[in-house]
C-alpha cells in the first residue's frame, strides 16, 4: 500500500508542466478567497449591508458574458443561433441544476454569516459522505471497506468541529441575521441553544447546502451520460447554465427576498450596484470577480489534473484558510479545529485513493458546467473522477 501511495504522490505525475502548477495554485487560492472575502464583507452584527442575491445575480451575469465571449471566438453568430435552436431541450434540462445551485450560492452567504471560514469549508466536506451514500443506493456501487472508513472519519471530523461550534454557542442565544432568500425569513426569531445541541439551525442550513450540491451533481451526471449533451459545445453548455441561473436568481430576488422588505427589486439591485461603483464596498466587486474566475480555473484544473491533486487542494485549503482567518479576522485555531482538519484531510485522501465513480458510457466528453468533467481516451484508466465530489467544490462554476 505504501508503494501505491508513493506512486500517487509523484510530483511529476501531479504537475506534468509548470502551467499545471500555476493552475493548481490559482484553483486553491480562489476557493480560499471565496470564504475570506465573504467573511470580510460582514458587518459587526454578522449580517451584510448589501443585497446578497444581487451579488450572486451579478456574478452569474459576468460568467454568462465570459462564456458567451469565449464561445463566439470559434463560432459565428449563425452557428450559435443554430446550436441554440437545436439544443433547446438541453437548455431546459439545465434549469434543475441551476435552481439547486442558485439555492446553494445564496445559502453560502447565510452560512458564512454563522460560521467562520474554516468551520464552513470543513463542514462542507460532509458532501463526500452524502455523495458516497447516493452512489451506494442509486447507482448500485458497492463501497469498499476503505471507502466506508474514509466516510466514517470524515463524518467524525465534521461532528468534532460542530461540537465546538455548539459549545461556543450554548451560553447565549443567537439571532439569525435577516438575509437573502425565503429560507432566511424563517430565522427572524431568536434561536436558543442553551440545550447544548449538536443539531441547530446553522447545521441544518449547511446540510441543505450540501444536499443541493450533491443532488445537482447526480443530475449533472445524468446529463453527462445523455446522448443529447455530448455534442454540445462546452461554452454553450456553460451559457445555458448561467442564463438559467440568472433567471432563478431574478425569481428569488423579486418574490422571495426579505433582506430589504421595504425596497423594490429594482431599488435593491441599483443600491448594491451603486455600492460597487462608488467604491465604498470594494469587497463586493472582488467577490463577484473571484467567484466568476472560479468557474474558468476549475474547468482548466479538471481538464489537466487528477482527482488526487484536487484532494491535496482540499486539505491545503482547510489549513491555509484557518491560518489566514486567524491573521485577518483574529479567529483562533483551537484544538478542535486542528484535530478536525487532520481527520478530514486524512479521510478525503483515503477516499481519493479509491473514489466512488460512475463513469459515463462514452469515452470522451465535454466539460460540463458545474460538473466540469473531462475524460480523455488516453487517461480514462488513470484518472478516477468523482463526479459528485468535484461538483460540490464550487459555487455555480
Automatic annotation (TrEMBL):
A Pfam family annotated for this UniProt entry: Nuc_sug_transp
InterPro entries per record: EmrE-like (IPR037185), Nuc_sug_transpt (IPR007271)
Any one GO MF annotation of this record: pyrimidine nucleotide-sugar transmembrane transporter activity
Lipid bilayer topology: Multi-pass membrane protein
Membrane spanning residue stretches: 21-38, 50-71, 91-112, 118-139, 201-219, 240-258, 282-302
Superkingdom: Eukaryota
Keywords: Membrane, Sugar transport, Transmembrane, Transmembrane helix, Transport
GO cellular component: Golgi membrane
Compartments in which it is found: Membrane
Protein name (Swiss-Prot/TrEMBL): CMP-sialic acid transporter
Provenance organism: Rotaria sordida
Amino acid at each position: 500500500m505504501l508503494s501505491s501511495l508513493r506512486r500517487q504522490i509523484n510530483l511529476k505525475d501531479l504537475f506534468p508542466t509548470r502551467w499545471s502548477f500555476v493552475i493548481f495554485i490559482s484553483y486553491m487560492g480562489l476557493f480560499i478567497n471565496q470564504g475570506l472575502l465573504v467573511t470580510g464583507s460582514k458587518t459587526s452584527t454578522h449580517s451584510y449591508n448589501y443585497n446578497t442575491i444581487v451579488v450572486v445575480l451579478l456574478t452569474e451575469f459576468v460568467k454568462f458574458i465570459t462564456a458567451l465571449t469565449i464561445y463566439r471566438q470559434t463560432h459565428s453568430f449563425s452557428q450559435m443561433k443554430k446550436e441554440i435552436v437545436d439544443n433547446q431541450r438541453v437548455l431546459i434540462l439545465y434549469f434543475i441544476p441551476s435552481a439547486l445551485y442558485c439555492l446553494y450560492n445564496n445559502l453560502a452567504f447565510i452560512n458564512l454569516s454563522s460560521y467562520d471560514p474554516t468551520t464552513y469549508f470543513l463542514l462542507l466536506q460532509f458532501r463526500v459522505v452524502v455523495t458516497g451514500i447516493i452512489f451506494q443506493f442509486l447507482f448500485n456501487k458497492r463501497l469498499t471497506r476503505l471507502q466506508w472508513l474514509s466516510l466514517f472519519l470524515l463524518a467524525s471530523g465534521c461532528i468534532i468541529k460542530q461540537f465546538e461550534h455548539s459549545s461556543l454557542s450554548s451560553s447565549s442565544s443567537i439571532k439569525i441575521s435577516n438575509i437573502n432568500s425565503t429560507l432566511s425569513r424563517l430565522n427572524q426569531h431568536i434561536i436558543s441553544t442553551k440545550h447544548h445541541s449538536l443539531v441547530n439551525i446553522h447545521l441544518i442550513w449547511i446540510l441543505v447546502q450540501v444536499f443541493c450540491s450533491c443532488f445537482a451533481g447526480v443530475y449533472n451526471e445524468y446529463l453527462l451520460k445523455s446522448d443529447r449533451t455530448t455534442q454540445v459545445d462546452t461554452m454553450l453548455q456553460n451559457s445555458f447554465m448561467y442564463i438559467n441561473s440568472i433567471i432563478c436568481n431574478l425569481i428569488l430576488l423579486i418574490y422571495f427576498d426579505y433582506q430589504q422588505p421595504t425596497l423594490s427589486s429594482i431599488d435593491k439591485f441599483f443600491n448594491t450596484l451603486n455600492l460597487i461603483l462608488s467604491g465604498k464596498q470594494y469587497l463586493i466587486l472582488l467577490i463577484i470577480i473571484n467567484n466568476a474566475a472560479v468557474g474558468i480555473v476549475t474547468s482548466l484544473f479538471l481538464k489537466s489534473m487528477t482527482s488526487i491533486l484536487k484532494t491535496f487542494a482540499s486539505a491545503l485549503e482547510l489549513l491555509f484558510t484557518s491560518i489566514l482567518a486567524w491573521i485577518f479576522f483574529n479567529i483562533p485555531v483551537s484544538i478542535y479545529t486542528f484535530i478536525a482538519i487532520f481527520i478530514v484531510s486524512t479521510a478525503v485522501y483515503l477516499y481519493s485513493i479509491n473514489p466512488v465513480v460512475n463513469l459515463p458510457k462514452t469515452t470522451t466528453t465535454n466539460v460540463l458546467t458545474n460538473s466540469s468533467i473531462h475524460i480523455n481516451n488516453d487517461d480514462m484508466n488513470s484518472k478516477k473522477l468523482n463526479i459528485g465530489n468535484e461538483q460540490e467544490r464550487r459555487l455555480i462554476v
